[in-house]
Task: structure prediction
Amino acid sequence: MEKGAVLEVHELSLIAELMDILGTSAGENGIVRIRKVRLVVGESHQALPEALETAFTVLGAGSPAEGAVLEIAPVATVFRCRECGHEYGGDGWLAPCPACGSFQRALIRGNELYVDYYEGETEEDLACG
Result:
């Protein structure tokens, strides 16, 4: 299977889970139309923004999120060296600490994946507008 095909499946599964979360929350709060969703995504998820947007459009069809704007807030990967405490960014999991050369590190940012917020309307809002 091509790398691009794997990434598309990955993004589809992330957005499918997002749609479940939005559907549950919208139902609990009387939201019938979702206008905007802000999704925070860490680089370590290796999710392509364009693929997330496409999956959001496809999976949102026929749901309260149909036509909604998906805003993606990326979070850069940051490691902390367990030997010297130096914090550094980068996408190379195999690269050593630039300060001491150690391969002992902890991921401290870049693994986030959550809905920061969403905006929507109730039946009452739509009737008044």
